[in-house]
């Protein structure tokens, strides 16, 4: 009985979690179709960001479901299903919250408070989302010391959840609605979030960074490549989060929400990277992806600067001769950027490979040198020797032999040429 339960539990959990995420996505669309009220919240949250949360929820849940069924011993997949279901269902409940508020009745306000409270509960899936960083990619911590830290982490998480759900006054994520079960003191002191919780969260993020560095330094070759996938995805998401934070905290006037939308959609990159890393699908492509990402990021910054300088310069030069030199400046700057794209890209890509991927750069140089040396070579022994030496410097095999077919009749055997490395 226990064995049967252990066999059926992973697929059942995966199916239920993915089903809840789908219910959240479909329910959100239906609520907006029946009651198309605007989503008005803080931090620039709007309908486009809501779509991003739904997409992220479905991505987390679906990839987590695959991991649970194929790697049931790995806790990461189980947590991913919880995160995905929570994200998608929270968009359904927040849609219901604003739909009930739009009724303008006492009963609608009560229903809105309940739906808003459930939204806060579902959004607290950010807690297991953080835990994934400490457990990736094996599903467990790397040492006893980090095991003790995780016990403290879950203790803090429990306190954080309780405070978030029982804080009196406006709900933490939906200030337009009061907490229907709030009691006790208000730890926020008029702020959106209690300062002590912000400090504890910063400590956890710093600890997460140390945990990932420690795991990478003690990991083997495969696990290090898995960590590269995870770090790259986190970097993309963290960059978008930083832009959203700057817009929210430092910009005057209403927040547009565009940066928040970019952050929400970029969050879907993280579960994809986790799935690739744990299932090891095209795992070793990460070096090429990182190389291209660095190169194109630098390329984009340079071309943007060239375009801006060219546009402003041409516009100022053409101003005395024409009333509207904007279109000419735009066209000329675009042509300059188009002409510079390939030359600059090749130089940047070469510089990135030389700095971060020296082995790949050296191998490419060696292959090009080999092609130049043997282009006109006709001596078989010298050709075989060149092939052997090139293989030794680029691939570094334990042993290698070159076989050439003998000049006898069809079907005749071959003989080794050039010896072994």
Helices and strands, in order, run as HHHHHHHHHHHHHHEE
Radius of gyration: 29 Å
User: How many β strands by DSSP?
Assistant: 2
Shape field: globular
First and last CA, distance: 57 Å
| Residue runs with pLDDT of under 50 for 5 or more positions | 417-421
Separate helix tally: 14
Give a quick account of the main beta sheet: strands, pairing sense, barrel closure.
Answer: 2 strands, antiparallel
Mean pLDDT: 77
Structural class: mainly alpha
The main sheet orders its strands as 1-2
Helix fraction, binned, reads over 70%
State which percent range the strand residues make up.
under 5%
Characterization of this structure:
The chain has a two-stranded antiparallel ribbon with strand order 1-2. With 421 residues, the protein is mainly α. It is built from 14 helices and two strands. Helix 2 (47-70) runs antiparallel to helix 3, helix 2 (47-70) runs parallel beside helix 9 (258-266) and helix 11 (286-318) runs antiparallel to helix 12 (326-356). The protein starts with a helix and ends with a strand. The radius of gyration is 29 Å and the shape is globular.
């Amino acid at each position: 009985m226990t064995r049967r339960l252990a066999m059926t539990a992973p697929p059942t959990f995966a199916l239920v979690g993915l089903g809840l995420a789908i219910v959240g996505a479909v329910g959100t669309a239906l609520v907006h179709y029946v009651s198309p009220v605007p989503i008005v919240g803080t931090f620039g949250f709007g309908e486009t960001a809501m779509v991003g949360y739904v997409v992220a929820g479905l991505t987390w849940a679906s990839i987590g479901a695959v991991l649970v069924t194929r790697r049931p011993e790995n806790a990461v997949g189980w947590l991913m299903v919880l995160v995905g279901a929570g994200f998608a269902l929270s968009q359904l409940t927040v849609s219901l919250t604003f739909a009930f508020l739009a009724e303008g009745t006492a009963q609608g306000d009560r229903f809105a408070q309940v739906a808003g409270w459930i939204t806060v509960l579902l959004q607290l899936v950010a807690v297991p989302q953080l835990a994934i960083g400490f457990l990736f990619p094996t599903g467990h911590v790397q040492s006893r010391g980090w095991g003790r830290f995780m016990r403290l982490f879950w203790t803090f998480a429990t306190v954080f959840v309780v405070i978030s759900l029982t804080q009196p006054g406006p709900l933490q994520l939906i200030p337009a609605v009061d907490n229907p079960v709030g009691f006790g003191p208000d730890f926020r002191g008029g702020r959106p979030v209690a300062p002590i919780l912000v400090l504890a969260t910063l400590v956890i993020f710093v600890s997460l960074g140390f945990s990932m560095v420690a795991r990478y330094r003690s990991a083997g070759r495969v696990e290090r490549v898995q960590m590269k996938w995870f770090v790259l995805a986190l970097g993309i998401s963290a960059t978008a989060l930083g832009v959203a934070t700057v817009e929210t905290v430092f910009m005057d006037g209403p927040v547009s929400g565009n940066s928040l939308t970019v952050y929400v959609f970029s969050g879907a990159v993280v579960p994809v990277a986790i799935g690739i890393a744990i299932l090891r699908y095209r795992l070793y492509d990460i070096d090429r992806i990182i190389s291209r990402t660095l190169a194109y990021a630098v390329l984009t910054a340079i071309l943007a600067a060239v375009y801006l300088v060219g546009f402003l310069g041409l516009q100022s030069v053409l101003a005395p001769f024409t009333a509207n030199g904007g279109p000419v400046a735009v066209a000329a700057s675009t042509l300059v950027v188009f002409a510079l794209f390939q030359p600059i890209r090749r130089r940047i890509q070469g510089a990135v490979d030389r700095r971060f991927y020296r082995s790949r750069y050296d191998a490419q140089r060696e292959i090009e040198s080999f092609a130049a040396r043997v282009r006109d070579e006709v001596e078989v022994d010298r050709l075989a020797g060149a092939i052997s030496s090139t293989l030794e410097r680029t691939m570094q095999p334990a042993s290698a032999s070159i076989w050439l077919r003998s000049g006898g009749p069809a079907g005749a055997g071959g003989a080794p040429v050039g010896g072994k490395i």
